[in-house]
Structure prediction request, 201 residues.
Amino acid sequence: MKILIATILLVFLGIAGVAQDKNQKTLENEIKKIKNKPAWVINYDKFDDITSVYLGGYNITKNTGGIIKGIGGRRYEMFVGFTFSGEILKESPKEFIVTFALFPNQAYPNNERENMSSDLKVIANTDRFTFNSSGKDSILSKALSGISQPVTSKFKVTRDEYERISKTNSISLKLGSIERELTQKQTELFSEVLELSNIKK
Prediction:
């Protein structure tokens, strides 16, 4: 009897110790439970065998109580996400992506193009970070294309930096001439994406 109990216990512990991988359906279900209801994109590229996950679509040009400077009449949206190999998330990603999309109402001036290629500066509480643009985000550009073709700019953030940012309650951004203090909803997006990326072991 003792041997049987010990065997059952070992099997149970073995199952409990297995990482809980996440397929696309699992990720979609977790996203739908997020209280802020962000827009989202999950894209699998079968040629590169890479899945990209984006959440956000928050308009950082909308003045909802934060500080807003140097934007004019255009719409800038912010997305946060990560990528992983294959179609199943098997381990927590070591890198995250912050992407900005510019949706022009009409032909936009050169300074707005310059904004999209500028460094991204972040103040999270008292921590300061600077990230270099990795260029256009082709996956998100394709997903967002419609009547107005957006211009995108992608920034890669290490997991350590991202965790530090996501654990704060105050985030300010500077992208070229754009300065924006994120709302609570926009700030919470960072921690929500971090939780989504986690694999429980």
